[in-house]
Amino acid sequence: MAKGDKFRKGDHVSWASHSGRAYGTVTEEITERVKVRGHAVDASLEHPQYRIRHDATGRDVAHRPEALRREEG
């Protein structure tokens, strides 16, 4: 992702996981410290993260934008 680009709700993305690439859909941009599935997400306006609904499991995960890759469809 180029600096300044942002992901939007509904974007289909992928990220590296233990078993290869994982896929999901962005559900929101996180701009404050929250917990996602019991894990602290240290996000801010300057360093946002994204809540993603995992395609295979349906669970929510959070990732920094640099870990994500926009996918078609």
TrEMBL record:
<feature type="domain" description="Hypervirulence associated protein TUDOR">
    <location>
        <begin position="10"/>
        <end position="68"/>
    </location>
</feature>
<feature type="region of interest" description="Disordered">
    <location>
        <begin position="53"/>
        <end position="73"/>
    </location>
</feature>
<dbReference type="Pfam" id="PF11160">
    <property type="entry name" value="Hva1_TUDOR"/>
</dbReference>
<dbReference type="InterPro" id="IPR021331">
    <property type="entry name" value="Hva1_TUDOR"/>
</dbReference>
<protein>
    <recommendedName>
        <fullName>Hypervirulence associated protein TUDOR domain-containing protein</fullName>
    </recommendedName>
</protein>
